């Protein structure tokens, strides 16, 4: 905090309290957090809301109290294990949420609040700062613990906070709560869905390579984990043009291209990628503030075919992968252990794909000359590095571009940059053909 910053609190009280097992999404992200600690701040993420109209600190605190009361995830913390093998979630009926009041730049404040890990047992899973312009609040900064929300859940919270600031209430039925979801997942219907997903993981784990990245790099960096960001208007135009030509989503085009590039860099003819799915296909989960996102298992047989042929094979494979993402991590752990014992070595792809865009920009045909001309505006930057990560190769799609976060002990920084540029080249070549 700066000398001019001060702290206040939001007193909240909401319906319901109690304990329940972690939801599948919570359990999945908790396992990733444990494997990444002490660098688990990697999973924190923030949003900045420009406050509509002219609002005092007191008015914004009232809206925040209503937001936390409505969404149980924002007043849920981990409970220490009590006779159980893993933590439970604990929903609290009321409490006090610390809030920073500052005049600093909201984006900088957000980065500062994201930069330290959460205390998952003792701290509320939401950090808040109010940015002042004079005596009025110009922006609200929200930083979420990933146990409480994923990107879509945070977007719901941001939308609801804006409505509360505009009109003081939300004219929709109460949202579902993580406790309700955990109980459904443990019930008969949830178990049937889990068993279907587990069958997919078990079948594919018998045929994929044990891991995508197994050969040590000859030039690891310090720290080992780095992120490269490719900003490429040419890639974006090419992807949309390919999607239009093949009646596919831009996300499927990029997932297919990622699997192909992994194959080129590793030599595997069958490639396994773990795409992150939002898992918000049930009516009762559309507006839930919770961590619903989980990894699915996407497998693609390359066999020297053209990119058009790969894309045709990838479409049904992607559908199966996203269905398998709604799974019980306990089932996945059991399948992983069983397949590893059967094959005599651990099975873990260590290769992820996360489309973090809130909307697919959609197919759009583009002239080849426009695509190739845009190549001159491509650039690669290195926005992040850290010591630990629970994966070896992670492609993220954002509005800023395509980023690759990798463990340089398995993929060096020069190879990371080359991989992104070859991804661009593959897609541009496929589009201009």
From TrEMBL:
GO terms for molecular function: 2,3-dihydroxybenzoate-serine ligase activity; phosphopantetheine binding. This is Condensation domain-containing protein. One of its GO terms (cellular component) is cytosol. Pfam families: Condensation. Gene3D superfamilies: Chloramphenicol acetyltransferase-like domain, Nonribosomal peptide synthetase, condensation domain. It comes from Sphaerisporangium krabiense. GO terms for biological process: amino acid activation for nonribosomal peptide biosynthetic process; enterobactin biosynthetic process; lipid biosynthetic process. InterPro entries: CAT-like_dom_sf, Condensation_dom. Residues 18-289 form the Condensation domain. PANTHER family: FATTY ACID SYNTHASE, NONRIBOSOMAL PEPTIDE SYNTHETASE.
């Amino acid at each position: 905090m700066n000398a001019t910053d001060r702290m206040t609190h939001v007193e909240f009280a909401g319906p319901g309290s109690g304990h329940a097992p972690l939801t599948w999404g919570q359990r999945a992200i908790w396992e990733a957090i444990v494997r990444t600690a002490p660098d688990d701040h990697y999973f924190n993420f923030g949003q900045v809301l420009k406050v509509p109209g002219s609002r005092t600190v007191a008015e914004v605190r009232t809206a925040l109290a209503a937001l936390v009361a409505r969404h149980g995830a924002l007043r849920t913390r981990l409970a220490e294990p009590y006779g159980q093998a893993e933590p439970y979630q604990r929903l609290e009926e009321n409490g006090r949420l610390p809030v920073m009041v500052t005049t600093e730049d909201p984006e900088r404040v957000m980065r500062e609040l994201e930069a330290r890990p959460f205390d998952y047992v003792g701290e509320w899973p939401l950090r808040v700062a109010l940015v002042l312009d004079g005596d009025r609040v110009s922006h609200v900064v929200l930083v979420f613990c990933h146990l409480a929300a994923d990107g879509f859940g945070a977007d719901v919270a941001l939308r609801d906070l804006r409505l509360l600031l505009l009109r003081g209430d939300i004219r929709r039925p109460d949202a579902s709560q993580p406790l309700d979801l955990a109980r459904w997942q443990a019930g008969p219907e949830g178990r049937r869905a889990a068993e279907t997903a587990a069958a997919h993981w078990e079948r594919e784990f018998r045929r994929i390579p044990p891991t995508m990245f197994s050969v040590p790099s000859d030039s690891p960096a310090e720290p080992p984990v780095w992120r490269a960001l490719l900003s490429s208007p040419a890639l974006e135009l090419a992807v949309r043009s390919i999607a239009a030509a093949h009646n596919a989503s831009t996300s499927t085009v990029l997932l297919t291209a990622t699997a192909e590039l992994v194959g080129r860099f590793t030599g595997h003819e069958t490639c396994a990628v773990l795409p992150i799915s939002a898992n918000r296909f049930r009516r009762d989960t559309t507006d839930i503030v919770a961590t619903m996102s989980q990894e699915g298992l996407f497998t693609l047989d390359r066999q020297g075919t053209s990119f058009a042929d790969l894309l045709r094979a990838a479409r049904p494979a992607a559908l199966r992968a996203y269905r398998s993402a709604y799974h019980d991590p306990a089932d996945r752990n059991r399948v992983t252990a069983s397949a590893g014992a059967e094959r005599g070595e651990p099975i873990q792809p260590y290769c992820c794909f996360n489309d973090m865009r809130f909307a697919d920009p959609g197919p759009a045909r583009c002239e080849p000359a426009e695509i190739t001309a845009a190549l001159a505006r491509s650039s690669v930057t290195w926005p992040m590095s850290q010591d630990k990560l629970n994966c070896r190769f992670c492609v993220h799609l954002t509005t800023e571009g395509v980023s690759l976060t990798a463990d340089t002990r398995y993929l060096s920084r020069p190879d990371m940059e080359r991989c992104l540029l070859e991804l661009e080249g593959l897609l541009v070549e496929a589009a201009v053909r």
